Amino acid sequence: MTFEPISRQSVSDQVFGRLRDAIVSGRYAADEALPSERELSATFEVNRHAVREALRRLQQLGLVQVSQGGATRVLDWRATAGLDLTMALAGAEDVLPVATLERDVLEMRACIGADAARLCAERAAPGARAAITEAVDRYAAAIPDLARMGEADLALWRRIIEGSGNIAYLLAFNSLTAGALAVGHVPAPRRTAELLDVAAHRRLSDQIARGDVAGAQRTARELLALTAIGAAAAHDEAGETTSERG
Amino acid sequence: MTFEPISRQSVSDQVFGRLRDAIVSGRYAADEALPSERELSATFEVNRHAVREALRRLQQLGLVQVSQGGATRVLDWRATAGLDLTMALAGAEDVLPVATLERDVLEMRACIGADAARLCAERAAPGARAAITEAVDRYAAAIPDLARMGEADLALWRRIIEGSGNIAYLLAFNSLTAGALAVGHVPAPRRTAELLDVAAHRRLSDQIARGDVAGAQRTARELLALTAIGAAAAHDEAGETTSERG
DNA sequence: ACCCGTCAACTGGTTGGACCAGTTGGCCGG
DNA sequence: CCGGCCAACTGGTCCAACCAGTTGACGGGT
In terms of residue numbers, what domain contains A46? Predict the structure, then answer.
């Protein structure tokens, strides 16, 4: 049992969180004007500067557009927000079921993971390949402890993606592993099948080490699909989230 | 000929840009302490609040870690930054050649595009499929004008990704198409081959419309690989960017 | 010589208020 | 009815003070 550090959210953090959730969950419609900074600061009973910091962060996330003189407008985050928003998408249950989001994240993980494994087998530097073998060993050494195996597994995949030499994949990996609803925090039972497949991990590592491009891609795809398929079967068609938008 | 809106960067935007470039380009080492807010505000000759807003944004991007009482420390962005950072990565030429970054973005585009096409053919709602056919028509209608074709092509891919119902793919698409070095702004000659392949676009649209899952995936992969291969051949091995890190 | 509490001198966090700068929309004169 | 003007918004910037944590050096006790 370990203790989490007590969260000391600053005032502007709280304002940010509230507004973010309000926007993502659709309580503010797209293109709607947010209350003025002065109004918000009165509502939240905080200084205007705190509100401003929050708004700047929301703008950076792609959730609002602030413009001097005019009102701060809410954007359609499906059109303007980047992948970093995934960290914040948990609080939009009514407009976007977590189950769907989880499925999406796992699909993306499988897609990128397989391609990264391919690229890694194709062009990773010798040192990077050695680091991967090493990471698999650490993963295997943690075998009874699921939590530690999960950590080691994440570290292994980071090595593989680093080995692929693709910065975009690496950043996407960061986006997906950060945040509450992250790949690493997927409920244990769902990842167990994948985590316990030590043989597949070993095989993947070997294929990368010896430059078996096609094999590495296939193994990675199979390994990562385990969870995705399980998740898909679990909630079948988790509801249509695709809607018509002009 | 159209005019771009004159950029009226606010003071804090400029501070943000300067610090971002300094960090990404490695002028501040990872784990190094940034100058204090008061110091920075004196250096840039701006108010401390402007510096604070910039720092909050940098923190959100995953470039720095600010902590009350302690110093604001620079993070290793390769480990902590999300995909949204791609928009800012142009100014790190010395530590990360644009050619490499461009290749990476194209690889990711191909990977996600193909999978989105697959998912779209598999589970898109009828309305979404119709919207795609429509988008292809608009794309084909723009035929002589490369710029307009590029726009229409982006719109088409957005429809396909929306049709896949995968929010993560959609957000990643946003991350990749935003920013200066975005997919949409890739130099014309490089995308020309792909853009001119109207037949393949039509085929893809048809396969999605009729639910040919494997076919759609294959067509999309081939279509998106055109550019990637061209780019890869152009600068061959654009230099190793993988380094050992503890 | 070493350990440990204390405290001063940092760090960022928050506040209030004043003023600048750009946008909007209504009002009034032509 | 049109068009310019102006007041009343909006966000942008600044100053100055103080609150709240962290850090490290200093000095007394062991």
Answer: 11-90
